[in-house]
Amino acid sequence: MVKCKKTRGQIIIPIFYDVAPSEVRLKTGVYVEALSLHESKKLYGDETIREWKAALKEAGNIKGYNLRSLPNRQEGEFVKQVVKDLLGALKKAFLVVSDCLVGVDDHVGEIMRMIGTQIQETRIVGIHGMGGVGKTTLAKIIYNQLSADFEDCCFLSNIRETSELHGIERVQSQLISDVLKQKGTDIKNSPEGSKIIKERLSSKRVLLLLDDVDQKIQLNALMGKRDWFGEGSKLIITTRNKDILNGFEVNYRYDLTCMNDDQSIQLFSRHAFRRDCPLDEHATLSQKAVDIAGGLPLALEIIGSLLSCTRKDMWDAKLKAFERTPREVQSKLKVSYDALDDRQKYIFLDIGCLFIGWDIDTVIHAWDESEYSPEETIEILHHMSLIKIQKDKKLWMHDHLRDLAREITRQECKRRYANQRRVWDHKKAFELLKTRKEKGKVEAICLKFDHRQDYRFTCGDFSRLPNLRFLHVDSLNLPEHVLENFRAQCRLSWHNLPSKAVQRSGLLPKLQWLSWHNYPPKFDITKFSLVNLAILDLSWSKLTDSWDGWSHIEMAKNLKVLNLTGCTRLKKTPDLSANVNLERLILEKCKILEEIDRSISQLRHLVLLNLNFCKKLRYIPKELGDMESLKLLIAGTSIEDMLESQVDTGASSPMEQISPPYDVSSSRKAQIFFRQAKAHFHNKLIRCGLKR
């Protein structure tokens, strides 16, 4: 271990279990006796034993975890703390990169020299190059190599897109929360965010990666001067425009160029043939593909992935289609889009316009199974490298492909957004909503409320969207007093201007996806038609057990996903017995939730119940133990704490003698299965209704 620490930079975290650090440092105890025994037996040389002693002393001097320092030897709490700290360190330290890397070592070596890993001074390095050349991948590799040496790390991804959609204040908030390790700071405007960064991070030695910066105003807001961060900080910027690096005390600039011919052949082959070189019979066509891609990694990946699922006798025709397109990257990528069938194109455009960053297990329910075969289609798009599914199951798409999807969507309606199928731009969505004519072609809109504006909606505004299937509303950042005013305005307009069409059939009769973060409880949800609703996301809303809307949600017979994350006023879940097709129920961070309604045991299609960080939850129906396909998440709940305490202390009580509500904390059966869960963490079912 000590050798790996010195030669590879690996980290040692000692766990002193039934041994004191002083014993490991050879002050006294079993280690001294054991080494003396080895010396007397002469089985090992003196040099080897000296190395052992030095290693033990060094390990003993490292700050670690000491079980003996805890009162009453609470092993369960001890293990939880170790796991929590290690998971936090791993999350900080690693960014996922492709496993098909080619020719990056020289780039990494040169940038590591620029960043000055052994130099205790602040360094800023800018990596610039055309889109799709691999700037972000390279920066992630550098970040991963440096992160072990930094207590405070932050990766700000897709700054260009995040700033466009949510404002630079969102990025500033993430930077502050990541470095200070606290919840997101409410930032009203960019100057306020800059002031907080300068004041609170100036003493922090940070590793900061600013990805895809396209305006100087973004750098001004995030890192105006190098003294905004502590001495020894390392800052990495990726951008397509090297001119924005002027005036920001950037120490070095690295121009990332396209791949050479040999590297291009290797990368193309990995995607087309799953090997490092082309098959002999395809050598000529492979070289042709490489010439078309022009050394651009993204194009090589897309072309190789397309050809890998194309019959070999069709390769020449596909490559001729690539040749006919202009040299611009987006035009090359469109050839892969043109190779899709209609249902695949539809889902590709949906993802590019609406679903980047969403959980795939939720998004999969956004499309009709019989019409779009979403699982098969997603697999095809993934195989063709048009989308990626990250390790946390979030959908991801390269910004070139995202821009392609949105440009195709604009062209479909000849750039007349009133006829645009998918409207992702919040400002245009608000303008669209207030337009008096019917918008029959609009299928999806995204709205975001701004505390600086007033909003008035009527039934008529929504009734003019008869084919809307996707509605996402974000009112998370509204201050409470503004939100109360907004609720009142909505309530007034909502009731005063009814629509005859609404009275007949309900608003938005084709609605399949409704996500409204911080939903105003007094906003009348009964006006919405929920007949076709598959996904309902009311995260971070002030909903209570007595909310009038629960009875209307019973109308959603096709509901597959119900997300109530962060509903901090909910004490008990509603009766969900009418939602017989529900598959995913997410209640994470419902802080005062105490009880799960027993109707949940009637949901025979339920595969996920997320109760993570519901700290007051003590009771769940024991019938959940019979739902073999159910995955139940209980991290950070009282249930987990009580079960672990029982395992440690041996307390017991037969479940059969407990009357409802079923108190998990007194169940012998829970203890037995909790032990199984600890041994087989992801697969064992705790028969009282817990599954890890």
Explained architecture:
- By secondary structure, the protein is of the alpha/beta class.
- 42% of the residues lie in helices and 10% in strands.
- The strands form five sheets. It has a nine-stranded parallel β-sheet with strand order 10-11-12-13-14-15-16-17-18. The protein has a five-stranded parallel β-sheet with strand order 4-5-6-3-7, with helices on both faces. Strands 1-2 form a two-stranded parallel sheet.
- Helix 17 (342-355) crosses helix 20.
- The longest helix has 19 residues, at 75-93.
- The protein is globular.
- The two termini are 32 Å apart.
- Mean pLDDT is 82; it is low at 491-505 and 645-692.
Strand order of the main beta sheet, please? Answer: 10-11-12-13-14-15-16-17-18
The amount of beta strand, in percent, is 5-15%
Structural class based on helices, strands and sheet pairing: alpha/beta
Average of pLDDT: 82
3D shape: globular
Number of strands: 20
What's the SSE blueprint?
Blueprint: H1 2-8, E1 15-16, H2 21-24, H3 30-41, H4 46-60, E2 65-66, H5 75-93, H6 105-115, E3 123-128, H7 135-146, E4 152-156, H8 159-166, H9 168-180, H10 190-201, E5 206-210, H11 216-223, E6 234-239, E7 252-255, H12 261-272, H13 283-293, H14 297-308, H15 315-324, H16 329-338, H17 342-355, H18 360-363, H19 369-372, H20 374-383, E8 388-389, E9 395-396, H21 399-412, E10 422-423, H22 426-434, E11 444-448, H23 459-463, E12 470-474, H24 480-496, H25 500-505, E13 513-517, E14 535-537, H26 549-553, E15 561-563, E16 584-586, E17 608-610, E18 631-633, H27 638-649, H28 668-679, E19 685-686, E20 690-691
Parallel strand pairs: 1-2, 3-6, 3-7, 4-5, 5-6, 10-11, 11-12, 12-13, 13-14, 14-15, 15-16, 16-17, 17-18
Antiparallel strand pairs: 8-9, 19-20
Helix pairs in contact: 8-9, 9-10, 10-11, 12-13, 12-14, 13-15, 14-16, 16-21, 17-20, 17-21, 27-28
